User: Fold this.
Amino acid sequence: MSIDVILPAPRAATASRKPTLRHTWKAIPDQPVLGLIDNSKARAGDLLEALARVLERQGFAASHFTVRKTSPSEPINAAQRAELLARAHVIVSGVGD
Amino acid sequence: MSSEQRKLERFDSYLTAVEAFLDEPWSDGLPVIPPTPELVERMVAAGTRGMDECLGTVPRRGLTVHVWQAATCAVMAGCRPDYFPVVLATWEAMLDPRFQLHTVLSSTGGAAIAAVVSGPYAQTIGMRSGMGVFGPGNRANATIGRAIRIGAFTALKAVTGELDASSFGHAGKYTFHFAEGELPVSGASTWPSIRQQLGYDTAATTVTVMPAEAPRQIMHRFQPTVEDMLKAVSHTMRDPAQNGTGTDTCSMVVLGPEHASIFADAGMTPGDVRRALAKRSRTSIAELTAAGFPYNYPGSRYNKPDAEGYIQGATADHILVVCSGGPGAGWSAFVPSWSWVDDGHPVTRAVRLPGGPAHERDASRAEQDLDFA
Assistant:
């Protein structure tokens, strides 16, 4: 006997996994400016600095700057978001533990 | 997911539906009850909110939880309809922005949602508060917590390896709901219940949620004194390997009947116990160092040592003393938060029953140094 059920969520096969476009982005030059988001966890800033230096040394980035969150649980604030949008061509975020 | 996106699907048989749900990231790995429209409607009718009402939003995920989703997951988990008011109160508490649900569900720390239910409705629906309180075998405890976790998978995409990055997780992530048990009597007075401590009347039933690491059992069956018990519990509380030790964290201290009576018989209240434990669960640089944890590691969040050289962990307002568990030789349990209060603050909500009175919190009657409301 057939049974009708409510799906609690879209099926994985049909669920969209494309990233959402949140901003009309600027063109990325060959040597972009990196914007780094330090989530304030232990040594996240050190790791990002080391990554940026490697990318600059190898010619993949022109320069970088860092914004630091006050807590890993909080999103970047409006001023940090504005700075990233104004200055960075590429943003590195999502640092874990 | 909005109510407009609610989808109905037809399966050849009951078992086909069960298997199909296991193929999706919609369960804890155990079979679920297929949520037919009739079962979901019956679940919703047992609560106080409409099918399409929004229970809350998790902004950083861009996701919402609606009543129909909570009810669908409650059916899947095996809840009886009369459990649904507790499910709803739990969601309402978890969706309070202070609870930081996004962080709680995603952290590598692998937090469970620990929820203690205080009040007569816990007994009405048969929640377990005594023997084996954190163990299996009670339908209400098992399925209410399970409904919440299934909701995290489905409504909030807290699927392992996707938006749940738990390095380990623990058994409490299957379910971690339990009831407050019998309170100890000291002379003519009884210890105040959790809901009374938080400013609710005794007829109310409340749910208090806290993001939690796995519980640690505390054995002391050697005729402990108050002093012994404070030492034993506080020693467990300041285990250097716990993420919250020496930081602004929170916790539940779940006292079994014998241990709770030791404090009550000495004339201590729950407030006295948590104030004493807050002081004694401070750690020190020497204690951290001896356990292999460098105090000055860059980015660590340890508090600064006080004038006596102690590093404060949870303060008295962030320790909830709970009486629960069964009689035995002498057992209690410590339930630490998985992190700092800023990353996941405990929250309490009253359970609302159809046709029942609204039990509002009266902050003036609450213990003023207890921050679990």
Remarks:
- The interface with chain B takes residues 1-12, 20, 40-46, 71-73, 75, 96-97 of chain A (CB under 8 Å).
- Helices of chain A lie at 44-57, 78-87.
- The longest strand of chain A covers residues 33-38.
